[in-house]
Amino acid sequence: MKKVSVVIPNYNGQHLLEKNLPAVISACPQAEIIVVDDASKDNSIKFLTKTYPKVKIVSNKINQRFALSCNKGVKAAKHNIVILLNNDVAPQKDFLKSLIKHFQNQQIFAVGCLEIQTKDSKQTISGRSTCQFKRGFLIHQKAKNQNKQATCWATAGSMALDRQKYLDLGGMDSLFAPAYWEDIDLSWRAKQKNWQILFEPKSKVYHNHETTNLQVFNKTNIQLMALRNQILFVWKNIKGLQLIKHFLWLPYHLIFTTIRTKGIFLLALIQAILRINKIKKS
Fold first, then answer.
1. Using CA atoms, how far apart are residues 15 and 279, in angstroms rounded to an integer?
2. Number of Cβ atoms within 10 Å of the Cβ of 253
3. What's the pTM value of the predicted model, to 2 decimals?
4. Which CATH number fits the domain that encloses residue 119?
5. What does the alpha-carbon distance between residue 48 and residue 60 come to, in Å, rounded to a whole number?
Protein backbone atom coordinates (compact mmCIF):
# COMPACT_ATOMS: atom_id res chain seq x y z
CA MET A 1 0.00 0.00 0.00
CA LYS A 2 1.25 3.47 -0.89
CA LYS A 3 2.37 5.70 1.95
CA VAL A 4 0.05 8.57 2.74
CA SER A 5 -0.02 11.74 4.80
CA VAL A 6 -3.10 12.67 6.82
CA VAL A 7 -3.82 16.38 7.33
CA ILE A 8 -6.27 17.45 10.02
CA PRO A 9 -7.08 21.17 10.43
CA ASN A 10 -7.96 22.04 14.01
CA TYR A 11 -9.34 25.06 15.84
CA ASN A 12 -10.20 24.75 19.54
CA GLY A 13 -10.87 21.09 18.92
CA GLN A 14 -9.07 19.29 21.71
CA HIS A 15 -12.26 17.41 22.63
CA LEU A 16 -12.68 16.32 18.99
CA LEU A 17 -9.07 15.19 18.71
CA GLU A 18 -9.42 13.19 21.92
CA LYS A 19 -12.48 11.48 20.45
CA ASN A 20 -11.44 10.93 16.82
CA LEU A 21 -7.63 10.82 16.60
CA PRO A 22 -7.39 7.24 17.94
CA ALA A 23 -9.60 6.08 15.05
CA VAL A 24 -7.40 7.98 12.55
CA ILE A 25 -4.24 6.37 13.91
CA SER A 26 -5.85 2.93 13.91
CA ALA A 27 -7.07 3.30 10.32
CA CYS A 28 -3.77 4.80 9.07
CA PRO A 29 -1.09 2.96 11.07
CA GLN A 30 1.82 3.71 8.72
CA ALA A 31 0.75 7.23 7.75
CA GLU A 32 2.33 10.55 8.50
CA ILE A 33 -0.26 12.42 10.56
CA ILE A 34 -0.23 16.22 10.58
CA VAL A 35 -2.49 18.42 12.70
CA VAL A 36 -2.60 22.04 11.55
CA ASP A 37 -3.55 24.02 14.63
CA ASP A 38 -5.20 27.29 13.62
CA ALA A 39 -4.16 29.39 16.64
CA SER A 40 -6.37 27.45 19.05
CA LYS A 41 -7.09 29.01 22.43
CA ASP A 42 -7.69 25.67 24.13
CA ASN A 43 -5.06 23.07 25.03
CA SER A 44 -4.99 21.30 21.66
CA ILE A 45 -1.23 21.65 21.17
CA LYS A 46 -0.38 20.67 24.73
CA PHE A 47 -2.67 17.63 24.45
CA LEU A 48 -1.10 16.50 21.17
CA THR A 49 2.46 17.03 22.38
CA LYS A 50 1.86 15.01 25.53
CA THR A 51 -0.44 12.27 24.24
CA TYR A 52 0.62 11.85 20.59
CA PRO A 53 4.27 12.91 20.27
CA LYS A 54 4.57 11.25 16.84
CA VAL A 55 1.88 13.49 15.38
CA LYS A 56 3.41 16.38 13.47
CA ILE A 57 2.04 19.77 14.53
CA VAL A 58 1.94 22.71 12.15
CA SER A 59 0.95 25.76 14.15
CA ASN A 60 -0.55 29.00 12.84
CA LYS A 61 0.43 32.01 14.94
CA ILE A 62 -2.78 33.76 13.91
CA ASN A 63 -6.10 32.24 12.90
CA GLN A 64 -6.05 31.67 9.12
CA ARG A 65 -9.24 29.63 8.72
CA PHE A 66 -9.90 26.34 6.99
CA ALA A 67 -8.58 26.78 3.44
CA LEU A 68 -5.18 28.20 4.34
CA SER A 69 -4.76 25.67 7.15
CA CYS A 70 -5.38 22.84 4.68
CA ASN A 71 -2.94 24.42 2.22
CA LYS A 72 -0.29 24.64 4.91
CA GLY A 73 -0.78 21.02 5.92
CA VAL A 74 -0.65 19.68 2.36
CA LYS A 75 2.51 21.68 1.70
CA ALA A 76 4.13 20.21 4.82
CA ALA A 77 3.18 16.62 3.90
CA LYS A 78 5.91 14.18 2.82
CA HIS A 79 3.82 11.83 0.71
CA ASN A 80 2.07 12.44 -2.58
CA ILE A 81 -1.29 11.02 -1.47
CA VAL A 82 -2.79 13.25 1.20
CA ILE A 83 -5.92 12.46 3.19
CA LEU A 84 -7.81 15.54 4.36
CA LEU A 85 -9.92 14.86 7.44
CA ASN A 86 -11.84 17.28 9.61
CA ASN A 87 -11.19 16.94 13.33
CA ASP A 88 -14.80 15.75 13.77
CA VAL A 89 -14.24 12.76 11.47
CA ALA A 90 -13.49 9.20 12.59
CA PRO A 91 -12.64 6.82 9.72
CA GLN A 92 -13.57 3.16 9.75
CA LYS A 93 -10.53 0.93 10.12
CA ASP A 94 -10.59 -0.39 6.53
CA PHE A 95 -11.38 2.91 4.77
CA LEU A 96 -7.91 3.56 3.36
CA LYS A 97 -7.35 0.65 0.95
CA SER A 98 -10.41 1.33 -1.22
CA LEU A 99 -9.64 5.05 -1.21
CA ILE A 100 -6.05 5.12 -2.40
CA LYS A 101 -6.27 2.34 -5.02
CA HIS A 102 -7.76 4.92 -7.42
CA PHE A 103 -4.48 6.81 -7.57
CA GLN A 104 -3.00 4.14 -9.83
CA ASN A 105 -4.74 6.26 -12.47
CA GLN A 106 -2.54 9.32 -13.04
CA GLN A 107 -5.58 11.44 -13.97
CA ILE A 108 -7.16 11.17 -10.54
CA PHE A 109 -7.07 14.38 -8.52
CA ALA A 110 -9.26 13.50 -5.54
CA VAL A 111 -11.50 10.76 -4.16
CA GLY A 112 -14.21 11.45 -1.61
CA CYS A 113 -15.36 9.22 1.25
CA LEU A 114 -18.83 8.04 2.23
CA GLU A 115 -19.78 9.97 5.36
CA ILE A 116 -22.03 8.49 8.06
CA GLN A 117 -23.75 10.80 10.52
CA THR A 118 -25.94 9.76 13.43
CA LYS A 119 -28.30 12.35 14.87
CA ASP A 120 -31.29 11.74 17.13
CA SER A 121 -30.78 7.98 16.65
CA LYS A 122 -31.18 8.41 12.88
CA GLN A 123 -28.31 7.54 10.55
CA THR A 124 -27.76 9.39 7.28
CA ILE A 125 -25.10 8.90 4.63
CA SER A 126 -23.61 11.46 2.26
CA GLY A 127 -20.47 12.31 0.33
CA ARG A 128 -21.51 11.81 -3.27
CA SER A 129 -23.04 14.92 -4.85
CA THR A 130 -24.72 16.11 -8.02
CA CYS A 131 -24.85 19.63 -9.39
CA GLN A 132 -26.53 21.66 -12.11
CA PHE A 133 -26.56 25.25 -13.27
CA LYS A 134 -30.03 26.57 -12.45
CA ARG A 135 -31.50 30.07 -12.13
CA GLY A 136 -28.06 31.60 -12.55
CA PHE A 137 -26.22 29.55 -9.94
CA LEU A 138 -24.45 26.23 -9.56
CA ILE A 139 -26.80 24.20 -7.36
CA HIS A 140 -25.34 21.17 -5.60
CA GLN A 141 -27.10 18.53 -3.58
CA LYS A 142 -26.59 15.11 -2.06
CA ALA A 143 -26.96 12.40 -4.67
CA LYS A 144 -29.88 10.04 -4.12
CA ASN A 145 -27.67 7.07 -4.97
CA GLN A 146 -24.57 6.93 -2.76
CA ASN A 147 -23.17 3.80 -4.42
CA LYS A 148 -21.74 5.28 -7.63
CA GLN A 149 -18.26 6.72 -8.19
CA ALA A 150 -19.25 9.75 -10.26
CA THR A 151 -19.55 12.91 -8.16
CA CYS A 152 -19.70 16.67 -8.68
CA TRP A 153 -17.05 17.43 -6.07
CA ALA A 154 -15.06 15.91 -3.22
CA THR A 155 -15.70 17.29 0.23
CA ALA A 156 -12.59 18.52 2.01
CA GLY A 157 -13.80 17.04 5.28
CA SER A 158 -12.92 13.52 4.15
CA MET A 159 -11.08 12.98 0.91
CA ALA A 160 -7.81 11.75 -0.57
CA LEU A 161 -5.95 13.92 -3.06
CA ASP A 162 -2.87 14.07 -5.23
CA ARG A 163 -0.54 16.42 -3.38
CA GLN A 164 1.37 17.67 -6.42
CA LYS A 165 -1.79 18.39 -8.37
CA TYR A 166 -3.18 20.22 -5.35
CA LEU A 167 -0.07 22.38 -5.12
CA ASP A 168 -0.14 23.01 -8.88
CA LEU A 169 -3.67 24.39 -8.46
CA GLY A 170 -2.48 26.67 -5.66
CA GLY A 171 -4.56 24.79 -3.11
CA MET A 172 -7.86 26.06 -1.78
CA ASP A 173 -8.68 29.72 -2.42
CA SER A 174 -8.80 32.06 0.60
CA LEU A 175 -11.38 34.08 -1.36
CA PHE A 176 -13.98 31.87 0.31
CA ALA A 177 -12.73 32.38 3.88
CA PRO A 178 -13.73 31.67 6.51
CA ALA A 179 -15.61 28.69 5.05
CA TYR A 180 -17.83 27.07 2.40
CA TRP A 181 -17.43 26.42 -1.32
CA GLU A 182 -13.62 26.28 -1.23
CA ASP A 183 -13.64 22.51 -1.89
CA ILE A 184 -16.25 22.86 -4.65
CA ASP A 185 -14.07 25.53 -6.27
CA LEU A 186 -11.02 23.28 -5.91
CA SER A 187 -12.79 20.35 -7.58
CA TRP A 188 -14.10 22.60 -10.34
CA ARG A 189 -10.60 23.90 -11.14
CA ALA A 190 -9.21 20.36 -11.14
CA LYS A 191 -11.85 19.29 -13.66
CA GLN A 192 -10.89 22.19 -15.92
CA LYS A 193 -7.50 20.46 -16.20
CA ASN A 194 -9.25 17.20 -17.13
CA TRP A 195 -8.34 15.64 -13.81
CA GLN A 196 -10.90 13.27 -12.33
CA ILE A 197 -12.89 13.56 -9.10
CA LEU A 198 -14.34 10.29 -7.78
CA PHE A 199 -16.39 9.04 -4.85
CA GLU A 200 -15.61 5.75 -3.10
CA PRO A 201 -18.63 4.30 -1.25
CA LYS A 202 -16.51 1.56 0.35
CA SER A 203 -14.37 4.15 2.12
CA LYS A 204 -16.52 5.03 5.13
CA VAL A 205 -16.04 7.63 7.84
CA TYR A 206 -18.17 8.89 10.71
CA HIS A 207 -18.64 12.65 10.43
CA ASN A 208 -20.50 14.86 12.88
CA HIS A 209 -21.02 17.74 10.44
CA GLU A 210 -20.60 21.43 11.34
CA THR A 211 -19.10 20.74 14.75
CA THR A 212 -16.44 23.47 14.65
CA ASN A 213 -18.35 26.00 12.56
CA LEU A 214 -21.40 25.85 14.81
CA GLN A 215 -19.13 26.63 17.75
CA VAL A 216 -17.61 29.66 16.02
CA PHE A 217 -20.50 30.96 13.88
CA ASN A 218 -24.26 30.91 14.34
CA LYS A 219 -26.64 29.43 11.77
CA THR A 220 -27.43 32.83 10.25
CA ASN A 221 -23.76 33.57 9.61
CA ILE A 222 -23.27 30.10 8.14
CA GLN A 223 -26.12 30.74 5.71
CA LEU A 224 -24.69 34.16 4.87
CA MET A 225 -21.22 32.77 4.16
CA ALA A 226 -22.63 29.96 2.00
CA LEU A 227 -24.72 32.35 -0.11
CA ARG A 228 -21.90 34.87 -0.51
CA ASN A 229 -19.46 32.17 -1.61
CA GLN A 230 -22.01 30.68 -3.99
CA ILE A 231 -22.10 34.08 -5.70
CA LEU A 232 -18.31 34.41 -5.68
CA PHE A 233 -17.94 30.93 -7.16
CA VAL A 234 -19.97 32.00 -10.20
CA TRP A 235 -18.09 35.25 -10.67
CA LYS A 236 -14.76 33.43 -10.46
CA ASN A 237 -15.45 30.30 -12.51
CA ILE A 238 -18.48 30.60 -14.77
CA LYS A 239 -18.07 32.01 -18.27
CA GLY A 240 -20.01 32.63 -21.47
CA LEU A 241 -23.76 32.11 -21.75
CA GLN A 242 -24.11 30.74 -18.23
CA LEU A 243 -22.53 33.90 -16.78
CA ILE A 244 -24.94 36.03 -18.82
CA LYS A 245 -27.83 33.96 -17.46
CA HIS A 246 -26.51 34.52 -13.93
CA PHE A 247 -26.74 38.29 -14.27
CA LEU A 248 -30.17 38.04 -15.93
CA TRP A 249 -31.41 36.06 -12.93
CA LEU A 250 -29.95 38.46 -10.32
CA PRO A 251 -32.99 40.82 -10.25
CA TYR A 252 -35.18 37.81 -9.47
CA HIS A 253 -32.91 36.77 -6.61
CA LEU A 254 -32.63 40.32 -5.29
CA ILE A 255 -36.39 40.33 -4.81
CA PHE A 256 -37.58 36.80 -4.15
CA THR A 257 -34.48 35.11 -2.69
CA THR A 258 -33.90 38.14 -0.47
CA ILE A 259 -37.48 37.82 0.81
CA ARG A 260 -37.18 34.06 1.26
CA THR A 261 -33.92 34.39 3.21
CA LYS A 262 -35.17 37.36 5.26
CA GLY A 263 -32.60 39.73 3.76
CA ILE A 264 -29.58 37.43 3.93
CA PHE A 265 -29.21 37.13 0.14
CA LEU A 266 -28.97 40.91 -0.27
CA LEU A 267 -26.31 41.09 2.44
CA ALA A 268 -24.46 38.17 0.81
CA LEU A 269 -24.47 39.98 -2.54
CA ILE A 270 -23.08 43.15 -0.95
CA GLN A 271 -20.32 41.15 0.75
CA ALA A 272 -19.50 39.41 -2.54
CA ILE A 273 -19.21 42.78 -4.32
CA LEU A 274 -16.77 43.93 -1.65
CA ARG A 275 -14.57 40.90 -2.44
CA ILE A 276 -14.53 41.28 -6.22
CA ASN A 277 -10.94 42.54 -6.26
CA LYS A 278 -9.80 39.30 -4.55
CA ILE A 279 -11.07 37.04 -7.33
CA LYS A 280 -8.31 35.20 -9.19
CA LYS A 281 -9.58 34.01 -12.54
CA SER A 282 -8.48 30.47 -13.39
1. 36
2. 21
3. 0.92
4. 3.90.550.10
5. 15
